[in-house]
Design a protein that fits this description.
single chain; 72 residues; mainly alpha; extended
Length: 72
């Protein structure tokens, strides 16, 4: 079993809470006061998947920017 430092655990919890808050804000904006737990979890997974894709794209962009700066 993989052990994490308290800092890593706290950051993971902050990310989880941020996702939930964002989803709750979106649902409220759309006029949903309640949603089934299974649907809520599916939506959270969609958000997590999109975040992972965004992180990869941001990393690729950063790397490309470094390459462009080195080549100048």
């Amino acid at each position: 079993m993989e052990e994490h430092s308290p800092e890593i655990d706290a950051l993971k919890e902050a990310i989880r809470l941020n996702r939930e808050n964002m989803l709750n804000d979106i649902l409220l904006y759309l006029g949903f006061n309640e949603v089934e737990e299974s649907r809520f979890q599916e939506l959270l997974q969609l958000i997590e998947d999109a975040e992972k894709k965004s992180v990869k794209l941001n990393e690729a962009l950063s790397a490309q920017e470094v390459i462009n700066n080195v080549l100048k």
